[in-house]
Amino acid sequence: MEKCLRYGMVGGDLKAFIGEVHRKAINFDTRAKLVAGCFSIDPVLGKETAIAYGVDMSRNYLDYKEMAEKESQREDGIDWVSICTPNFLHYQVAKEFLLHNINVVCEKPLCFTIKEAEELEKLAKERDLVFAITYTYTGYTMVKVAREMIKKGEIGKIVNINVEYAQDWLIDSLDPKNQKATTLSVWRSDPKYSGISNCIGDIGTHAENIVHYLTGFDIKRLVCTTDNYGMALDLNANMILEYENGVRAALWCSQVACGHLNGLVVRVYGEKGSIEWAQEHPDYLHVTPKGEPTQTWARGGSYTMKYDAGHYSRIPVGHPEGLVIAFANIYKNVITTILKKKNHETVTEADLDFQNVSNGVDGVKFIHKAIESSKEGKWVEYK
Amino acid sequence: MEKCLRYGMVGGDLKAFIGEVHRKAINFDTRAKLVAGCFSIDPVLGKETAIAYGVDMSRNYLDYKEMAEKESQREDGIDWVSICTPNFLHYQVAKEFLLHNINVVCEKPLCFTIKEAEELEKLAKERDLVFAITYTYTGYTMVKVAREMIKKGEIGKIVNINVEYAQDWLIDSLDPKNQKATTLSVWRSDPKYSGISNCIGDIGTHAENIVHYLTGFDIKRLVCTTDNYGMALDLNANMILEYENGVRAALWCSQVACGHLNGLVVRVYGEKGSIEWAQEHPDYLHVTPKGEPTQTWARGGSYTMKYDAGHYSRIPVGHPEGLVIAFANIYKNVITTILKKKNHETVTEADLDFQNVSNGVDGVKFIHKAIESSKEGKWVEYK
Amino acid sequence: MEKCLRYGMVGGDLKAFIGEVHRKAINFDTRAKLVAGCFSIDPVLGKETAIAYGVDMSRNYLDYKEMAEKESQREDGIDWVSICTPNFLHYQVAKEFLLHNINVVCEKPLCFTIKEAEELEKLAKERDLVFAITYTYTGYTMVKVAREMIKKGEIGKIVNINVEYAQDWLIDSLDPKNQKATTLSVWRSDPKYSGISNCIGDIGTHAENIVHYLTGFDIKRLVCTTDNYGMALDLNANMILEYENGVRAALWCSQVACGHLNGLVVRVYGEKGSIEWAQEHPDYLHVTPKGEPTQTWARGGSYTMKYDAGHYSRIPVGHPEGLVIAFANIYKNVITTILKKKNHETVTEADLDFQNVSNGVDGVKFIHKAIESSKEGKWVEYK
Amino acid sequence: MEKCLRYGMVGGDLKAFIGEVHRKAINFDTRAKLVAGCFSIDPVLGKETAIAYGVDMSRNYLDYKEMAEKESQREDGIDWVSICTPNFLHYQVAKEFLLHNINVVCEKPLCFTIKEAEELEKLAKERDLVFAITYTYTGYTMVKVAREMIKKGEIGKIVNINVEYAQDWLIDSLDPKNQKATTLSVWRSDPKYSGISNCIGDIGTHAENIVHYLTGFDIKRLVCTTDNYGMALDLNANMILEYENGVRAALWCSQVACGHLNGLVVRVYGEKGSIEWAQEHPDYLHVTPKGEPTQTWARGGSYTMKYDAGHYSRIPVGHPEGLVIAFANIYKNVITTILKKKNHETVTEADLDFQNVSNGVDGVKFIHKAIESSKEGKWVEYK
């Protein structure tokens, strides 16, 4: 019975924020070891990363295709690859590893086109491979508790939703003088590397995803406005979503909203209560049962521990966990699932509590529909 | 030179919340005295109100038409009438007093149809009468400070707006079992007394108005969804507004959003900074200059006093003022304007800092356009 | 049966903040009329105040002794006097009116010495006069709700208390260059007008009072440090109080704590729960039942209305009331008590829910014990 | 030149919260590897821990003395030991490793008596060994930024300090029925394992330490009350501290304060400004420059990056870091210091930014003085 997995990484050199987060998060689980990588197109930086993490030089690749090929042939080959490259490479890298029957964990958004997304989904399903998408915020304990509360009907039938994801890190690009420089320095603002959307693709998709994660609702149609302010891609978007069950959600995302740091805030209103969660204070959840005062639930509190999801909590109540642990919670389930499959054990629904390639497809579709609505100035149906 | 005015009131008996607020607010100014009223259709309650406020019985009317007629003929007749009736009476009462050349202060929304609204506007202008609409929240000092900051360009060119007004007092009407009873007991939920909208007409209009007050922006088009949940009128609405200058705003209003009390929150984002104001903590304003930490401005703070609007502050910093004083600030300007006109003094722009019949017309138009967009499922142009 | 009272005021001219607050607050009750006053030592300002409030010139006094004398002889003399002078006049003015059998409402602190305080207490009791002290913060609805919760045992036996009252309006007087000017311009910082203490006498006494109001506890002993920073009187003080039942409280007051506006915050911890109330957001109360999440109670919320004290609420939930209404709540009970006594009706315990001369004596004693402990550098016993 | 260190751990088995935190934190640095341990008195649990972390069985010790002995003799012996045992073992374990010339990182409090503490301090100094104490909260970036601001004089001369550390996890022990069980299950409440204090030794010492860390002030005298509520050791304490420069601080710590989770809050007031930091939202710092609005500084914000300490930030602004990264920041400096010493490089003051054995001595002294003051009911001098 295997107890420990081996993984590789494409992208995510030492200087890349998100690669580090993935590695620290995986380490929290102590059930997987980094053994291979194709960390950077810069060979020096790639090598440094390999050394820092003790990756053997024979498995420090310069070409991800070679990596997929060689790792698939080794007996001690990697059990999965974590893809931390810029968006435009997700599709080709993911496809390569799937074709070599290697499980995939990929950053969001999954890829550029719906067709590509569906191709990856099909490949993963046909080959029965795990394909996780790291929609980070679904990893926070209190998001999971909120989801469980909603599932159990504790806030009743949902009647309205409000979600926003506001940042201000691109505010300087509002100034025409800075726009060229921004496009050069921020790959997300360049269609070549980012696809048809910047803001919606980068953060709007998280907002859409967290609502789906919490409620299970599927979008029926949406109306959207985007603001580019002179840039090639959107920096701000306002939307109304209508789900198949008729419930509506307002969704706002922005990279130019002065004063917002990483302001993902989701609020779900039901007939019997409501919940509110804000990413910057992730260990807390605001719950209002109908007719009662608003309650501030804390991760690790005894009342939270009455929920299965409460047990994702790792450190005691009142001691902040933070983003890396949210990632660790995602990987925890990914690793359990891969391990169980490897050991021919039964994978449970709880093990599968991570966003997968189908959620990735949803994300790509959402980006396309939103941009379409904005361009055509009207409601756009999903079907 | 007159120093003190006389006023009358239609509606607003002792048991009515808003009539009391008007009277206390006017009293804060110590420049006007209540001398006449037609407070209630219940003569006993009307009389009790008159007695409590020392109104002479000869000026305690049962019929507002009689009141308009008689007061207009007295030498010491009222200088203005405050209309605090349910919505469906605003038009006829306001018209009657205008026709008798008496200034009017009216609760929002002004009336039911755009035609009626424009008729009242025309009447007031022709006769050069003051016609104020008590959009309460424009009376708060920190809203006025925010407006001055925006006017002075301190947050730069505006790029996006987010406004919401959420309450939960009608949440019980989500349950079909309660809907008949709600319609009977809450006049706002009955089209007969409330017109074509409940939620948008009651609170959505405040949200729209405060953005206009802060920015001066006029709406070009909007898209809206409304949720009635089985009731005759809307209880929840999501909108995207587009202003004539291309700026967009998300607007959400709800009377069924569990956990929200009187949650008017407005956020205006500019190229150089942003402001956020929340009605439940009205003495504070959150200001973020670009690239700097978010600041919490307090009414009465020395930095606030550098703004003309800062001087609306009446009690020292840190001591809460509250809703009545917001009303008092509106009446302060209304009274000054009426007094100056009476004394043939020059009325300044600062004196006219209250919402007037034209803002009332805008409010009625907004309600109609929003309902239209919701019904037709598309963007609706203003022109 | 009398339904309306007449009152007079000593101090509190138009330019004085607190006099205005008293008058607006009394007006909220619509059961008392200002008919006499000795508003200022400046006759011009006094007259202006009288005119603004419609006080007949024959009852606009220049000498409070004459006022007490003449009003006591009129058949329509004042039912009570509100004393809004600087601290150093409280004793003599209060005494004069008591000696003329006129009820008194006096600002805090009651007077300068324990002996004087006890003399006033004795006088009021002998003559069966109402003698209220306007400890403002006891007037807030949510403070009263907290008190009722504690009384009903809902937070269990109290185990610890933390109270602070921090402001920063005198921070400039930390600079030796400003100290002379401060002493001249701020009477509270001058022993002649303020007695033995500035900070403790001005705001520390509120902190001590609110704990007593909430819990009923009497102090057994205390230890205190004061910081004058070069001024004649204290600007900052730290204390530990021990009550007769052994419970301890930390008390901090300051007029030089940068960033604090009017920061009275009181927290009471019991075996079964805790409450926290902050003056700057007075419509809310934070309640934590043991083992449950912290709850934010709102004035006017249905759950608040289950408490008798909840019914002090005057305007709907979510609409801020503010300081003037806290004062109005104090006067409501004072007026009811005086009216009932005048009409020979039974005064209930609920009517007497205002701070009286005995609480005033406690306040004076507290100031003296705190200063004594600070000077002697040791614990000081009350008895 | 060495680039990577080897470390061992005493205590901290898989089930122990704090051992896990140490290991994850060290891993964040990727410059040290766990190679030896004496993790538990339970051999099964110890072995499991060793396996989980890949520690060779030959270095999985059952006896810490054996571990010190053998590791000191190996060429590839550990560079330091991290001590994560209950308090009562700190002294003997630390001493043993010091005597074998191995650097030490020890949990707080250092040990039970001042004599023991000074002995350890002497040993470490004589042998020129690194001896760090993990006062966790000094590791947070925003605490370090606050310290730098204070050092640079940005809030001016300090005039008052307020610090509290409140929790409620022992509230059940207020009930006499639970006290015996608590003593058995919570080693901190048993003098045998915890020394003369529970609450002050566990969390009060953090409160004292963070003030010293921020200001550099040394205590001159203190007055303290403790509340045991029937237990052998304190569960709550109120103090006033006086520093050698005359500045005072109020300090409150509690394990029975209902509603507080891990509520360390420190506020430092200066002549030119103030800072406030709360552990539960560690990525933010509230700063109020005199005469300006309060500012909310965020870790990672560009204005924060103007401070050297800002660069402790690891993940982008708005993405929470949490407790483990605070620990990682402490270990970062410890590891740098040990590495530099090993490589005969110059250790800078910045490298030494971690709490050391002398701070540990201060902590033990503080606990003793506080308990002494409480017992004797008077101010206690440090010298």
SSE map:
The structure is a homotetramer of 383-residue chains.
Chain A: E1 5-11, H1 17-29, E2 32-38, H2 43-52, H3 64-73, E3 80-84, H4 87-99, E4 103-106, H5 114-126, E5 131-133, H6 141-151, E6 158-166, H7 176-185, H8 191-194, H9 199-215, E7 219-227, E8 236-243, E9 248-254, E10 263-270, E11 273-278, E12 284-289, E13 294-298, H10 323-342, H11 357-376, E14 380-381
Parallel strand pairs in A: 1-2, 1-3, 3-4, 4-5, 6-9
Antiparallel strand pairs in A: 6-10, 7-8, 7-14, 8-9, 10-11, 11-12, 12-13
Helix pairs in contact in A: 1-10, 4-5, 5-11, 9-11
Number of domains of chain A: 2
Radius of gyration of chain A, in angstroms, nearest whole number: 21 Å
Helix content of chain A: 25-40%
- Give, in spatial order, the strands making up the sheet with the most strands of chain A: 13-12-11-10-6-9-8-7-14
Number of strands of chain A: 14
Helical region count of chain A?
Answer: 11
**Ends distance of chain A:** 46 Å
Assign the structural class of chain A, choosing from mainly alpha, mainly beta, alpha/beta, alpha+beta, or little secondary structure. Answer: alpha/beta
Give the overall pLDDT of chain A as a whole number: 96
Largest interface (CB within 8 Å) is between: A-B, 44 and 43 residues
Give a short account of the largest sheet of chain A: 9 strands, mixed
| Oligomer description | homotetramer
Shape of chain A: globular
Secondary-structure arrangement, i.e. CATH architecture of the largest domain in chain A = 2-Layer Sandwich
SS strand fraction of chain A? 15-25%
Unreliably modeled segments of chain A: none
CATH superfamily of the largest domain in chain A: Dihydrodipicolinate Reductase, domain 2
Any idea of the CATH class of the largest domain in chain A?
Alpha Beta
The CATH topology of the largest domain in chain A comes to Dihydrodipicolinate Reductase, domain 2
Order of helices and strands of chain A: EHEHHEHEHEHEHHHEEEEEEEHHE
